[in-house]
């Protein structure tokens, strides 16, 4: 067993001691067999949610209707799900009703792919009724049961399939591939939030290039033309008649933070499409809003795109003042976001691709300059509004903001020292001059 599974053993034991069956299921079993690090450990058991809540009184009833409670143990959270079968799917999204069952095999049958339909007990014994282990060994993605039906039940499985194939380097079994193509209309039915979460996992798992190729080959890419045009274009670029973007997309696949992937995707496909950058920034913003990203996240992404445009203006031989102006224009935090992206792009070998003229100033150089700036924000300025009012003997008013900004600019551009007295004098001289 993996150390993370070891850590969860007391939860299994507690259930077993109470007479229930309890096993590890899903992604953790799959990743363990692949020799990959586990990110979360899911547990399934024959205990109903009520029975589970009795055994773990401080469990959080996160999804009682679907049989899920979240158990806290040793500082970690575990999803504990009751063995269940799914009832009818009325809307290709969620089962209308679930039925709790006492049999593990019945529970495994409702799962999407054979590689996800395995369970492991606490001694490491595998339950694998659909040949998931063999499929993993042969690098095959196969639906549990009739693929076409399974995709029709829940269209999210289309995207999950693409993700698993792309991230783990699996080939679709012929039946699964046919099912995917037959079910692609279902894409329209998936809530955009779920699409976003799935694509995030695709990006985090390094599956962008392979995923784009699979979207193209399956015809699923067409469904993205409207909501996420850059992704549809990426798919086009990976198909046989593409614009030769496959290599940069490969490099972009090495980015590990989903947001870096999203930014790179839009920058790459913006640049080669040879359209105005502004148009692409707007398009990117639309996509991120469509994917229901949080506002904070949308702002961070917009900052990275704005930073990229700004850095491009700095050119191949950037000056410290240029960076200072960028900080004045965008703000310190957005510049830090942008620098983190630039550094990640460098590590992925993607930086040259993001700057068509090859004018990518190294992130380390820009970061060094940022740290050296005598101030980056009004907070760091050696004078504040209150002091200025006192020095100038004026009441607070709309004159104050612009004056502070001007002082910050003077400090950041090296025209004045960041010292209270000098700044007060400078302000006085400006006011007298007007
Ligand atoms: P990862 O955690 O790496 O994203 P995972 O396979 O664990 O992958 P989860 O969303 O955590 O994915 O789901 C846990 C398990 O629940 C899956 O392994 C699968 O058995 C089952 N499952 C999840 N979503 C679906 C679905 N849409 N249809 C059928 N089974 C699903
Ligand atoms: Mg999981």
Architecture blueprint of SSEs:
Elements: H1 3-17, E1 22-25, H2 27-33, E2 42-45, H3 49-55, E3 60-63, E4 68-73, E5 76-82, E6 84-86, E7 98-100, H4 104-109, E8 119-120, E9 126-127, H5 132-137, E10 140-141, H6 147-153, H7 156-168, E11 171-172, H8 174-182, H9 192-204, H10 208-218, H11 229-238, H12 246-253, H13 258-272, H14 277-290, H15 295-314, H16 320-330, H17 332-347, H18 351-354, H19 363-372, H20 385-392, H21 400-412, H22 420-433
Helix pairs in contact: 6-8, 7-9, 7-10, 9-13, 10-11, 11-13, 12-13, 13-14, 13-15, 14-15, 15-16, 15-17, 16-17, 17-19
This protein binds adenosine-5'-triphosphate (ATP) and magnesium ion (MG).
> What share of residues is helical?
40-55%
How would a crystallographer describe the biggest sheet? 7 strands, mixed
Silhouette = elongated
Q: What portion of residues belong to β-strands? A: 5-15%
Give the helix/strand class: alpha+beta
Q: Tally the helices: what do you get?
A: 22
User: In the CATH hierarchy, what is the class of the domain at 373-434?
Assistant: Mainly Alpha
- The number of distinct β-strands equals 11
Query: Which stretches are poorly predicted, pLDDT < 50 over at least 5 residues?
Result: none
| Average pLDDT metric | 91
Ligands bound here?
A: adenosine-5'-triphosphate, magnesium ion
Distance between the termini: 76 Å
What CATH calls the topology of the domain at 373-434 is Serum Albumin, Chain A, Domain 1
Radius of gyration: 27 Å
Strand order of the largest sheet: 3-4-5-2-1-8-9
